[in-house]
Design a protein that fits this description.
The complex is a heterodimer of chains A (about 400) and B (about 500).
Chain A (H helix, E strand, L loop, with lengths): L1 E3 L4 H14 L3 E4 L15 E4 L6 E5 L4 E4 L5 H10 L2 E2 L8 H4 L8 H6 L7 H4 L6 E8 L4 E5 L11 H5 L7 E9 L1 E2 L3 E8 L3 H12 L5 E7 L12 E8 L1 H15 L5 E6 H12 L12 E5 L5 H9 L6 E5 L4 E5 L8 H9 L5 E6 L2 H6 L8 H14 L15
Parallel strand pairs in A: 1-3, 2-3
Antiparallel strand pairs in A: 4-5, 5-9, 6-10, 7-8, 7-9, 11-13, 11-14, 12-13, 15-17, 15-18, 16-17
Chain B lengths: L7 H5 L1 H11 L5 E2 L2 H4 L16 E3 L4 H14 L2 E5 L15 E5 L6 E5 L4 E4 L5 H8 L4 E2 L12 H7 L6 H4 L6 E7 L5 E5 L10 H5 L8 E8 L1 E2 L3 E9 L2 H13 L6 E6 H11 L9 E9 L1 H17 L2 E6 L3 H12 L1 H8 L2 E4 L9 H15 L3 E6 L4 E8 L6 H18 L24 H14 L17 H5 L17
Parallel strand pairs in B: 2-4, 3-4
Antiparallel strand pairs in B: 1-2, 5-6, 6-10, 7-11, 8-9, 8-10, 12-14, 12-15, 13-14, 13-17, 16-18, 17-18
Helix pairs in contact in B: 9-11, 10-13, 14-15
The chains are: A alpha+beta (about 400), B alpha+beta (about 500).
GO molecular function (chain B): FAD binding; oxidoreductase activity
Organism (chain B): Thalassobaculum fulvum
Pfam family, one (chain B): FAD-oxidase_C
């Protein structure tokens, strides 16, 4: 068991080329903060990309930034903040949920896992912001794709397929991504006392308004952040001061018909609230409970939750993405209630469920990522083989045999 | 432009192929007569023409699946086509290929305001989606200039953009799901009304794949509520450098305009001759900056943009005070292509992207190239995202001018790559830029892209001759020599 920690992209390629020549599988990590996500792997060696760290290029006026995969997210966010810019997709930090420790993630991990936060419904996911990359494929070859400009349709958009591939297609050695101006102000409207059906309808009305809502979440219980009691329906407005004020006033009026009592949180309280929602802090403890992440059509959220909660006692959950993202913690079980969760999601017509946190034995026993229809699964396996024909890179992390 | 050599053996089987297609799509859905196939011989890149072997216009997913299954089993190439508005020859037929037209897939299937989605067949036009939802104040954001004609299926194939894409994204950022048919005739559904993929982002890979991976038969997109208001500022500058500095300053101030367009002096004058939009004819460059959103925000930002423009040496500045005036500001820009068409017998529209700060450099190089090739050029430019549309003016009836225009265009695009940009921002590679791919990608990069194609289309039957300069057989691409035990253990820091 060897851990290789290259200092250059060429060295990273040499490691993969050696692994290919030995036909030996390799675990790919950049800072390993999300090692506990996915199926357990049988890899003899680790390629640790944390040495490929640092911002190589940051051009605020071109709205682009380029960095090595091992660069801490915190370092990038600090550099952007100095220029009043941000990663608009608001990458979530899984650290609190997985290890109890935040701030350890890398930018390579963010893109490899396609992590986005509450602003995803307005600004898109990580995959919408990766402009180009260089990586080593499972053939031991260095390939590049995309570019460093925001508008580019030259060749296949391989940036999309590496985002969310969890290191199973290629080891990223360099990333170029889009950055955007950070909003000057933020305000969160809080409607207290709505039931879940009504809350989702209210969030749908807010999203369908012209008031440019950037996030909408419903918290059935007080989460200990943002000074908000539950049940609370939270709607975030961001932008220039006068605009935020005018939109908040208009939205209050338009949502009055849904009932409940209205309030607002501003500034650091609002930021704290959305950080907690983003990082699944409300479900972090107790740490032995499996935590699922469900993506469904927003209006289907409450029925999916009801189907799960009526079959198992002791579940806790909340909604983000206007109802379309459900985080739910269930009592410990050897299968993490996978059958129940996935049949509930199937009732929503479209969607998927990912077992984000569970013991290793559970992750070995049940599919962590949503099983696909046979045709799509076969296509995914062929795409994997097109990058990594011998199954060298993170084999089996997403699905058995891929 | 050299296309793959037609397969004589397939051409000899033409009657049999036409009969087989007629058995799948009855009636007028199969066109085999040369005169009737004429409308399909080219797309929006009219410099290249080729009659297909046969045109087939299916109406159902089952028919599409049966056609593709037949073609796959019988080694027949297929070129998919939406509305045929591609500017890069993406739908250029093949002499030995079936042209698969999706024009009859023209229904909107589902409008879901609560989840903010529309599901439509691929032949529905881009604007058709907005028309279906605009009575409730919604719209579909990507707005390519051809939106009145181009199909949503074609938008997926090309990952189409538009003047508003800096703020609202390209097609890939606005599509949620598709039903597709593989070349083997298998029907797959990807995505739906939820966000993000459960596994590999196959939808993201498919978007912008120029009809080389699969045929889309149904599309689900997200719709947005129309911004409450929009106003535009029309600013003249002495030079393109000053206009470029103004663009940088606007973005530097944290403002992301709904649209930000630049025109150079030849384009300003061509547009002004054509539509009389009130553009300053003596300006070296003109900027149109459109702010959209809540009224109070737009008013607030208009003032900021005005200050920035004045600080950056604006020589003229007008703010739209009515919807009519705003539309008038745009009229010249939107008519730029036909306006240039009026002053020249032919023109060629290029589509490179550069890092914005390289604008003065590329413009001065274009001026030199214009002298070298003896051809005029006018520039319109998506200033916010660095996407250039140089229009090269030529006369195809003059011997050698088309070839000179092509060489001029290639020179511009390779210069874009040299300056840190790319060959195509939104029109696609198609056949037009196919042979320039080597200026941006190594052979290894291109081989990896083609391996991805092999995962979908192992026989290389879907739209061959587009995007990739050299065709490789999948077996050859998949080959891998494993030198077991021969590479030394890497001498790299380890723990």
């Amino acid at each position: 068991m060897t851990t290789f920690r290259p200092d250059t992209a060429e060295q990273a390629r040499d490691v993969v080329a050696w692994a290919v020549s030995e036909e030996t599988p390799v675990e790919i990590v950049s800072r390993a903060s999300k090692r506990a996500v996915g199926r357990p792997m049988q890899t003899g060696h680790t390629l640790d990309l944390s040495g490929l760290s640092g911002i190589g290029l940051y051009e605020p006026e071109e709205l682009i930034c380029q960095a090595g995969p091992g660069t801490p997210v915190a370092e990038i966010e600090a550099a952007l903040a100095e220029q009043r810019q941000m990663l608009a997709f608001e990458p979530m930090d899984l650290g609190v949920l997985l290890t109890g420790e935040a701030g350890k993630g890398s930018i390579g991990g963010v893109f490899a896992a396609n992590l986005a936060g509450p602003r995803r419904i307005k600004a898109g996911a990580a995959r919408d912001h990766l402009l180009g990359f260089t990586a080593v494929t499972g053939r031991g070859e260095t390939v590049k794709s995309g570019g460093r400009v925001v508008k580019n349709v030259t060749g296949y958009d391989l940036s999309k397929i590496v985002c969310g591939s969890w290191g199973t297609l290629a080891a990223l050695t360099d990333l170029t991504f889009k950055v955007l101006p950070a909003p000057e102000h933020e305000t969160t409207l809080v409607i207290s006392g709505l039931d879940e059906e009504t809350a989702v309808r209210a969030m749908s009305a807010a999203m369908g308004s012209p008031h440019e809502v950037s996030s909408a979440a419903h918290l059935p219980f007080a989460i200990g952040a943002g000074d908000v009691a539950g049940p609370a329906t939270c709607i975030r407005l961001e932008g220039f001061g006068p605009s935020v004020a005018a939109r908040a006033a208009a939205l209050e009026g338009e949502l009055a018909g849904f009932g409940g009592s209205q309030g607002a949180v501003e500034g650091y309280l609002s930021r704290d609230l959305w950080r907690a929602i983003r990082d699944v802090e409300p479900l972090a403890a107790p740490a032995d409970r499996p935590v699922w992440r469900l993506s469904v059509p927003p209006m289907a959220g409450p029925a999916v939750v009801l189907a799960i909660r009526s079959a198992v006692e002791g579940a806790d959950h909340y909604y983000d993405w206007a109802g379309g993202l459900i985080w739910i913690a269930l009592p410990p079980a050897s299968d993490a209630h996978a059958g129940l969760v996935r049949s509930a999601v199937a009732g929503a017509a479209t969607g998927h469920a990912t077992l984000v946190r569970a013991d290793e034995s559970v992750r070995a026993a049940v599919p962590v990522f949503q099983p696909q229809d046979p045709g799509l699964a076969a296509l995914a396996a062929r795409i994997k083989a097109s990058f990594d024909p011998l199954g060298i890179l993170n084999p089996g992390r997403m699905t058995a045999g891929v | 432009m050299k296309m793959p050599e037609p397969d004589r053996e397939v051409l000899e089987r033409r009657d049999e192929i036409v009969a087989a297609l007629r058995a799948i799509v009855p009636g007028e859905g199969v066109i085999a007569d040369d005169r009737e196939m004429r409308p399909y011989e080219s797309d929006g890149l009219t410099a290249y023409r080729q009659l297909p072997m046969v045109v087939v216009l299916p109406e159902t997913t089952a028919q599409v699946a049966a056609i593709l299954k037949y073609c796959h089993a019988n080694g027949v190439k297929v070129v998919p086509r939406g509305s045929g508005t591609s500017l890069s020859g993406g739908a250029l037929p093949l002499a030995d290929g079936v042209l698969l037209g999706l024009g009859k897939f023209n229904r909107v299937l589902d409008i879901d305001y609560a989840n903010r989605t529309v599901t439509a067949q691929p032949g529905v036009t881009n604007l058709g989606i907005t028309h279906a939802v605009q009575d409730r104040g919604f719209y579909y954001a990507p707005d390519p200039s051809s939106q009145i004609a181009c199909s949503i299926g074609g938008n997926i194939a090309e990952n189409s953009g538009g003047v508003h894409c800096l703020k609202y994204g390209l097609t890939t950022n606005n599509v949620l799901g598709v039903e597709l048919v593989t070349i083997e005739g298998e029907v797959l559904r990807i995505g739906g009304k939820h966000l993000d993929s459960e596994g590999y982002d196959v939808l993201g890979l498919l978007t912008g794949s120029e009809g080389l991976l699969a045929v889309v038969t149904e599309v689900t997109v997200r719709i947005l509520r129309k911004p409450a208001t929009a106003r535009a500022v029309l600013v003249g500058f002495g030079t393109s450098e000053e206009a470029g500095a103004c663009v940088a300053a606007i973005i530097g101030a944290g403002i992301v305009p709904g649209g930000m367009e630049m025109m150079d002096n030849p384009a300003i004058n061509a547009a002004e001759d054509f539509v009389n939009a009130g553009y300053p004819r003596d300006a070296g460059a003109l900027l149109i900056v459109e702010l959209d959103g809540p009224e109070v925000e737009v008013d607030f930002l208009i003032d900021r943009v005005r200050e920035i423009a004045e600080a950056n040496g604006a020589t003229s500045l007008r703010v739209s005070e009515s919807e009519d005036e705003r539309n008038n500001f745009w009229a010249g820009r939107k008519a730029a292509f036909p306006a240039v068409g009026r002053i020249s017998p032919d023109y060629m529209c290029m589509d490179g992207t550069i890092p914005r700060r390289q604008l003065p450099e590329i413009l001065s190089r274009m001026t030199r190239m214009s002298e070298k090739y003896g051809l005029r050029v006018a520039n319109v430019f998506h200033a916010g995202d660095g996407n250039l549309h140089p229009l090269i003016l030529f006369d195809a009836n003059q011997p050698g001018e088309l070839e000179r225009a092509e060489a001029f265009g290639a020179d511009i695009l390779t210069t874009c790559v040299e300056l840190g940009g790319v060959l195509t921002g939104e029109h696609g590679v198609g056949v037009e830029k196919r042979d320039l791919m080597g200026s941006m990608f190594s052979e290894i990069d291109l081989e990896q892209q083609q391996r991805v194609k092999c995962a979908w289309d192992p026989k290389g039957l879907l739209n061959p001759g587009k995007v990739f300069p050299t065709l490789h057989r999948c077996a050859e691409l998949g080959r891998m020599h494993v030198a077991r035990g021969q590479l030394p253990f890497p001498d790299i820091p380890r723990f």
